[in-house]
Amino acid sequence: MTSQAELDKLIRGDYAAGFISAIESDTLPPGLNEDVIRFISAKKGEPAWLLDWRLEAYKKWLSMPLPTWAHLDHPPLDFDEVSYYSAPKSMADRPQSLDEVDPELLRTYEKLGIPLHEQEMLAGVAVDAVFDSVSVGTTFKAKLLEAGVIFCSISEAVHEYPDLIKPYLGSVVPQGDNFYAALNSAVFSDGSFVYIPKGVRCPMELSTYFRINEAKTGQFERTLIVADEGSYVSYLEGCTAPMRDENQLHAAVVELVALPGAQIKYSTVQNWYPGDENGKGGIYNFVTKRGVAHDNAKISWTQVETGSAITWKYPSVILRGDNAVGEFYSVALTRHMQQADTGTKMIHLGKNTTSTIISKGISAGRSSNTYRGLVRISPRAENARNFTQCDSLLLGDTCGAHTFPYIESRNPSAMIEHEATTSKVSDDQLFLCRNRGIDPEKAVSMIVNGFCKEVFKELPMEFAVEAGKLLEVSLEGAVG
Amino acid sequence: MTDAVTSTADRAAARPTPVVEPLAQKLAAQAHSLAEQTAASSDALSAWRQAALAQLARLPFPSKKTEQWKYTSLMALDAGHLVTQAPDHANAPALPEPLAPWRLVLINGRFHADLSQLPPQGVSLTRLDGSAEAPLSIAEDALRTPFAWLNSAALQDGLLLTVADGVALDAPIEVLLLGSADVASHCHTRLRLQLGAGSRATLIERYIGQGPVLTNAVTEITTGENSDLVHYRLQAEAADTLHIGSLILAPGRDSRAASFQLMQGNALRRNDVRVLMTHSGASASLNGIFVGRGSTHTDNQICIEHRVPHAVSDQLFKGMAGDKARLVFNGRIHIFAGAKGTNAELSNKNLLLSPGAEVDTKPELEIYNDDVKCSHGTTCGQLDAQALFYLRSRGIAEPAAKRMLAFGFVNELLSALPDEAVVEWARPWLERALTEAEHA
């Protein structure tokens, strides 16, 4: 039997990664206008075309109404309370090696379990670590370059590979795509750029760790991945943020381009601060993620969403080419007062295109968990195929689980199947575990893990371990 | 600062407010003036009409931006349907064979006693023409669309059927609703059925008609404790008609209600069905067959609300879209926080019979309780090529083989119907609808 103090600690389930590192940063005062955009652009020494591109996005954003269709309830956002630029100060002169990196920063990474020093030898994972808005250290670059793979920050790519950036930036998610994408296009701070040349299988899994650190700083990441014909890349994204009381806005854009025969696997573990049990604090996460799959290409999204007070996220695939494949595997866990409205869009344009959607939603506490999806079959998408499964698990009678799948079929040869179920952890399952001596919390965690297995098996090994652990930690205190 | 707009307040002011579509505005104005004319007449239903008028004024008319009307445009109503009232037919047109021994006939919304066979003892009939007061809506917010409120505000005639406690009818009551006009016009039909405790009844609503007439129908059904209801809604109007209908069903405690809808597409068809599970132990079963033919439009919105513990609902809807037809289906299961022990299921299966057809379906779950069993499933596909080949290899021509398979697709629903007269009417009807669905 555990002591009362230990129990209390478990039930509170405090955010394990909630600490604040004190690093001086070069932060812009809150507010947004054209000058702010010019400042960001100038600070990064961007070419004129990109500044124009940003300003165009800003103009579009100004004319767009705030979207209200999601099953979310939050106070209106004040975009002038957000600071749109923040860079670690020591970045003014970019460190040439890890030794030059601010030791405070390195210690932060160590707390998060991202040992930059060791990573080179250990995991075989190149990390483009984003600390607030500017990329700090990029490893394994040489090894990747040898294979012809470009993996760098997007601001660097703008300077070094403009021919790759120009045709693809905004090609999947245009500036005026939606409210938050327009905002991102106007003020995006930094992010990652990946280019895999023709026929190359990326020698390692690419990974970016995000971390929002500066109070009241919006983080506007922009990621662009271009996989040239016949190439393959697996990209990992993981995030965690320190504890803050004020809501922080995050509006990221991720664009994937899978040229004919290419494969992109994009995995996310999202563990931003979800707010406390009364809904105080937490990250507001409004993300636009979309990929275009050309002939015979494949795009696979896998996500484990346990964080953020508000999640608004629909990783989508436009199956433009014939025989293209789109996949979406998702686990979304909400507790306390978290609200998630997440799902996917599969737009079938090409012939013989197939898509699979597996979504697992788990709600606990007083949270609300919504799956919202769209499967659209265009008239010329002969023999298109979709399978969708959305399962919801409710833990407790004060939470909500919702499913809103839109299905639009305009081709008779298409086959679409959708099914959704809602259930709770059954007493039978719990009883079976308990009479084998497993304590209730562990039992629920096991059952939930089993519930999510279909999605976890899609994750790369090291991520799957992290995801399982994350779920376990998040469930602590959620079981009554 | 080079930018004039700098603060959130300024920006909010600068952002365009959602524009109300001119069409929605126009229809709202037409509906309002229509309702005002009727509401002015003073009779036993005046107060009730006035209240509906207030609701109508409050509710905006749908446009393409309205989420629940995403797939349905009201463009077809631009011809002034809401301005002109369909004529009151003095001479009755030829009526089809009745499906039941008791039949009540409404032509363009007006009750015709001379054409009707009144129901037996134990069933009371009240005309909703203002001659007497009558309890009308189930709940103030039961109606969801402006069309339903328009129906109430502009009500001039309708029927209230009350089956007394403990009365078990051994045959169905048919209500035949005929809508017919040569010019773009409208009629409102209103039907209310109240089933007493321990009673048993079958109601067949059959809509027929032709011409550019908009039938704006509202049907409300409440059933008493431990009652049995079988309800049919057969919508067999010609392809040039328009139909916007609401059905509200509120089953009583420990009661059983089964509702079956059969419909073929027409120029505009919209059905809003709302089932209110507000009594424990109630069970509701909703089934339907939708056939889209020609360039018709069929939009079904089914919402089932489980507000109390231990109620059960199941739904199975099958749709077939041929030619250039469009089928829209939205099936919502809403489980309220207190509704523990709920069982709710929904299945929607669709067949696309031709390359120009379209199916848009959205099964929704909104659940606020963990102690429930809920599921929904939906499929969309075409006829099985192997089965088609098998039939053709037996010398059956392709169109006939396709019809056979399509018929087989929906037959499980038809053959389960308890009333033989309805099945006998439905089979040839379906055959005809499928032939029409093949091609233009």
Structure characterization notes:
The complex is a heterodimer of chains A (480) and B (440). With 480 residues, chain A is of the alpha/beta class. Chain A has a domain of 283 residues. In chain A, 24% of the residues lie in helices and 34% in strands. In chain A, strand 3 and strand 4 form a beta hairpin. Chain B has 440 residues and is of the alpha/beta class. Chain B has one domain. Chain B contains seven helices and 19 strands. In chain B, helix 2 runs antiparallel to helix 3, helix 2 runs parallel beside helix 4 and helix 5 crosses helix 6. The N terminus of chain B is likely disordered. The chains are: A alpha/beta (480), B alpha/beta (440). The interface between A and B is large, with 46 and 48 residues. Strand 24 of chain A pairs antiparallel with strand 19 of chain B, so a sheet runs across the interface.
Topology of this structure?
The complex is a heterodimer of chains A (480) and B (440).
Chain A: H1 4-12, E1 25-27, H2 34-43, H3 48-62, E2 86-88, H4 103-112, H5 116-119, E3 126-131, E4 134-138, H6 141-146, E5 150-153, H7 154-160, H8 162-168, H9 179-187, E6 192-196, E7 206-211, E8 222-227, E9 232-240, E10 248-250, E11 253-258, E12 263-271, E13 283-293, E14 298-305, E15 310-313, E16 316-319, E17 325-334, E18 339-342, E19 345-348, E20 354-364, E21 368-377, E22 385-395, E23 400-409, E24 415-424, H10 427-434, H11 440-451, H12 453-456, H13 461-475
Parallel strand pairs in A: 3-7, 6-8, 7-9, 8-11, 9-12, 10-13, 11-13, 12-14, 13-15, 13-16, 14-17, 15-18, 16-19, 17-20, 18-21, 19-21, 20-22, 21-23, 22-24
Antiparallel strand pairs in A: 1-2, 3-4, 5-6
Chain B: H1 8-14, H2 22-40, H3 46-58, E1 102-107, E2 110-117, E3 123-127, H4 146-153, E4 159-163, E5 173-180, E6 185-195, E7 200-210, E8 213-223, E9 228-235, E10 242-250, E11 256-264, E12 268-277, E13 283-292, E14 297-306, E15 312-321, E16 326-335, E17 342-352, E18 358-367, E19 372-381, H5 385-393, H6 398-414, H7 420-438
Parallel strand pairs in B: 1-5, 4-6, 5-7, 6-8, 7-9, 8-10, 9-11, 10-12, 11-13, 12-14, 13-15, 14-16, 15-17, 16-18, 17-19
Antiparallel strand pairs in B: 1-2, 3-4
Helix pairs in contact in B: 2-3, 2-4, 3-4, 5-6, 6-7
